[in-house]
Structures are given as C-alpha cells and as structure tokens.
Amino acid sequence: MIILDILFYSFIIVVIIQVLYYAVLFGSFSFSKTESKATKSNLPISVIICAKNEAENIKRFLPSILNQDYPNFEVVLINDASIDDTLDVFEAFAEKHNNIKIVNVENNEAFWGNKKYALTLGIKAAKHKHLLFTDADCKPISNQWISEIVSHFTEQKTIVLGYGAYQKIKNSFLNKLIRYETLLTATQYFSFAKIGIPYMGVGRNLAYHSDEFFNANGFINHIKIRSGDDDLFINEVATEKNTTICVNPQSFTLSIPKTNFKDWYRQKRRHVSTANLYKFKHKFLLALFYISQVLFWLLGIVLISTLYLWPFVLGIIILRFILQFLSIGFSAKKLKEFDIVFLLPLLETSLLVIQFCIFINNKISKPNYWK
C-alpha cells in the first residue's frame, strides 16, 4: 500500500503540472481573445524562399506568392545547389515578373549542403530590411498573407511568428498525427511568446527585420547544425520586447505533408535534433511538459488497474482530459484544425511513443541533412 500511496500522490503532482500547462501556459494563447485587426502597413518587404530540387513545387506554389495583394515586395529565390530544373524554373518566372531576384548557390566545400549558408546569401541579397520566410512547398492561404504578417511589425516588434499548417488528407491517421504535432507545437510557441519567453518559430511562416540577423552575426553560432535556421535562430534572438505573433487565418501558409511514416519520422528526427541547443529555461519547460504527459498515462493506468482509490483517480483523469480538450480545442479552433480534437487521446499517446523513439535514435546517431 505504501508504494500505491506514493504513486497516488505522485500522480496528483503530475496532474497539477498538467493543469498548469493546459490552463495557464497554453491557456494564455488558447483562451485569449481573437486578435483584433492590426494596423495595415505598406512596409517594403522581401519574401525569401530557399529551394533545393523543388522545381515542381515552385511551379505549383510560387504564383500564390507573386499574386499577393501587397504594393511593395520582392521575392528572393535561392537555388541551393539543385540538381533538377529549379534554377530554370526560377529564371522562367523572373522573365515575367520584375520583382524576382535570383540567388544561385553552388556547393561550397566548407558549407556543403548547408541551408543556412544559402539563406545567408539570400538575406544579404535582399533589397528590403523586413524579411518574410516560407518554404518552396508552401503556399499562402490567402492573398493577404504578406499584408497580415507585415501589419504586426512595429518599431519594437521586429520578429513575427506565423502559423504554417499542413494540407488535410481524408482517412489518413498519419495526416492527423502530423497536423496534431504541428498544432501542439504551434500552441506551445505561441503561448510561450504570449507570456514573454518566445523560443521558436517555423520557417514555413516567419518574419523578422534584417537587423536581428546581422546583429546576431547570422547563423554563426549554430552554422554547423544543419537544421535550426528558424527555431535555433529565433531561440537565440527573440525576446519579450521584440517578438509578436500573427494568427489571423489569412496569414496562414499551407504545406504538403509527408504521406508515409518513414519520411515524416526522418523529418521529425531532424527537427527534434535542434532542441538540445535551446536555452535552458525553454528546454526545462518543454521537457517537464513531455515528462508529465508520460507520467500521467503510466501512473493513471497503474492506479486504475489496481483500483486504488479509483473514484478519485478517475475524477482526476476526467478533470485533466476536460482541461486538455478545452485548451487544445480552443487553440485548434483558432488555427483551423478542430477536426483532430476528437482523437486527442489516441494522437497524444501515439506522439509520445514516437517522440521517445526519436529521442533514442538521435542519441545513437545524429541526423545531418536538410534535404
């Protein structure tokens, strides 16, 4: 009984931690009022897209960027040593649009295959100080994407974190898992930004002033890490004073999701590999949330299976699930991902197992690629 007593009180502590995350931390974003319309701005901006072997995606998605309803923008297209027709496609678009600038990057022995090297050349080539980043396989949901993101820049707010969604695929559990992971990650980085400790952004939809880049000497502090041009850079330079978020649906981008588990798992290994370089406070808070999730399930199952004070345990479990559904549900409603909320327990447990496997894999061998 002493062991069960210890497990029970440990379970209480774990649930309290979970309640603090879902109700307080994530609630700072989930339960906040929908953002009011930001003041429109006509700041000149450079949209930067780095592409490696993305000829078909450029043909498909670049028009949605060129057709943005915004008066003053250029598009900087970076060809990162592609071996397909990416450069030819860039040049074909440039012949028809005078606001396109092409940066052709050849392999450099010191920076071979390093996206950060290619991005650095693109940023240096940009004509404007305000920079908006997206990926070659992304498209803005509306023609107001640039307008919405730029409207959040002020003299103080020089970093704007946006949301990059993934396309929905019917009857695909993998697609729902991908979108749940994306939703949870967005809820985390938007919430952290809301309470003044921003820690990351996603390169599919991210904007900042070039001064932030040059004052930090670019990606120099993590140039040897193949990933992290978005999250590691933001983790380094973002503060309470210079960072804001944009969650107006017209500001979202939409990307092509992976359609087989192996490719997605490989992608997530690369993404997760950068988290070890986050600031300690961010690593602590993210690790505490993950550990509390795992312990909630393990301790809850043990206590229920032994019928130890089961009415109390069951009531606590129900309370936690209600808070989770409310917190993640309101966030999902804001980010237009509400259809996955009804599968939360299954998606949560699946992701926890996958994240544990990724952690073990990355301890054994480090992923060192971006394409």
TrEMBL record:
The keyword rRNA-binding does not apply. Signal peptide: none annotated. The lineage of its organism: Bacteria, Pseudomonadati, Bacteroidota, Flavobacteriia, Flavobacteriales. This is Glycosyl transferase family 2. InterPro entries: Glyco_trans_2-like, Glycosyltransf_2, Nucleotide-diphossugar_trans. Keywords: Membrane, Transferase, Transmembrane, Transmembrane helix. The chain crosses the membrane at residues 6-31, 284-304, 310-328, 340-361. Residues 46-179 form the Glycosyltransferase 2-like domain. It comes from the Bacteria. The keyword Transmembrane applies. GO terms for molecular function: transferase activity.
